[in-house]
Amino acid sequence: KKTALEFASKRSALIAASSRGHTSLVKILLEKGADVEAQNFINGTTLIAASFGGYISLVEILLEKDADINAQAGQYGTPLMAASSGGHTSLVKILLEKGANVNTQADYYGTALIAASLHGHTSLVEIFLENGADLNAQASDYGTALIAASFNGHISLAEMLLERGADINAHTGEYGTALIAASYGGYASLVETLLEKGADLNAQAEEYGNALTIASFEDHKSVVEILLEKGADVNAQAGSDVTALIAASSEGHTSLAEMLLDKGAYVNAQADYHGTALIAASFGSHTTLVKILLEKGADVNAQAGYPGTALIAAF
Q1: What digits encode the pLDDT tens for the residues 260-306?
Q2: How far apart are CA 139 and CA 109, in angstroms?
Q3: Following DSSP, what letter does each residue of 44-93 receive, concatenated?
Q4: Does the keyword Repeat apply (predicted)?
Q5: Measured distance CA(149)–CA(135) in Å, rounded
Q6: DSSP H/E element including 281
Q7: CA 87/CA 122 separation, integer angstroms
Q8: Number of separate helices (H) and strands (E) present in the chain
Q9: Rounded Cα–Cα distance for residues 261 and 40 (Å)
Q10: Helix, strand, coil tally for the chain in percent (to 5)
C-alpha cells in the first residue's frame, strides 16, 4: 500500500522531470504509477511543464498517456500558453492539431494569443489568428493581444494586430490601453504609431492614470513631449488625481518637471495621496527640485495628500 508521501514524491518528481525534459525518467515514473495529471503551483501539470520547455517528444508521450491538453494550472496557464510563451512554433502546431483550444482563458497570460503577443512571437500570432483566435479577447493583467504587444514595445507586431482589426482603444487589464502600456515602457515610436491610428490620448487606467502621467512617473521625456504635442492636457488629473507634474516630482525627475512647468503645468495642483508637487518632491528628498518648485510659486504651506505638508514630508 502506497503512502501519501510516496504519491507526493512521485508527483513532484514527475513534474520536475517533465520541466527539464528528462523523457526516460518520465517514462519510468509513469510506469511506476505516477499520475500524468499531477500538478503543482508553479509548473502546473506535467504536460504544461513539458510544453513550456518545448520538449516535443516528451509532450507526445504525455499525450499518448491521455494528459489533458486543455488543463489549466500553474503560472503558465495551459500547455498551449506555455508553448506560446517560449516561442515553440512546432510544438504549438502539434498541440493545435491534437485539439488544444486556442481561445481558452487562464490566469497570467490570459490566452495563447496574448502570451505570444507579449513575447513578440509574430509567427505564432499569425498561426493563432489562422486557427480562430479571438483577436480582441480580454483577459489577464495584459488585457488584450495589442496591449500585451505594446507593453513590450513590439511595434511591428502591434501594427500587424491593428491591420487585422485589433481594437486600439480596448480598455482592460492593469495597463488600461495600448497607448498607456506603450507610454509606460517609453516606446516613443510605438506611441506615435498608436496616436496616428486613433488611440485615445486621454484614456485612463485605474492604477497608472493616463499615458501622460505614467510616462512622467517613468521619466520618459520623449514620450511626454509627443503626448503634449498631440494635445494631451498637461494638467489632467488621473489615477488618484495625480498630474504629470506631481508624478515627475514624486520620482525626482527634475528636467522633466521643468519641462512640464514650461508647458503650463499648475504647480499647486493636489492629488489624493501625493499631495502637491512640492510635497511629493519633499517626501522623496529631491532638494534641487524642491528649490525649483518654490521658485515657480509652489505653496510651501499647502496641506494635501498623505504627508500633509511639505515640511512633514521632508521628515
Answers
A1: 999 999 999 999 889 999 999 999 999 999 999 999 999 999 999 98
A2: 8
A3: EEHHHHHHHHT-HHHHHHHHHTT--TT--BTTTBSHHHHHHHTT-HHHHH
A4: yes
A5: 12
A6: helix 277-283
A7: 9
A8: 19, 4
A9: 52
A10: 50, 5, 45
Mind listing the domains of the chain with CATH numbers?
A: 9-100 (1.25.40.20), 233-314 (1.25.40.20)
**Cell numbers representing residue 121 in the block:** 512571437
Question: What pTM was computed for the model?
Answer: 0.92
Report whether 266 contacts 296 (CB < 8 A): no
Helix (H, G, I), strand (E, B) or coil at 73: strand
The H-assigned helical ranges of 141-199 are 145-151, 155-163, 178-185, 188-196
Q: Are 238 and 213 contacting, i.e. CB atoms less than 8 angstroms apart?
A: yes
Q: Could you give the CA distance from residue 31 to residue 12 in angstroms, rounded to a whole number?
A: 15
Q: Which residues pair with 275 in a beta bridge?
A: 271
Extract the C-alpha cell encoding 280: 511629493
Q: How many other β-carbons are positioned within 10 Å of the β-carbon of residue 137?
A: 20
Q: Which amino acid is at 315?
A: F
Contact 249, 286 (CB under 8 A): yes
Handedness of CA 101, 103, 107, 113 (dihedral sign): positive
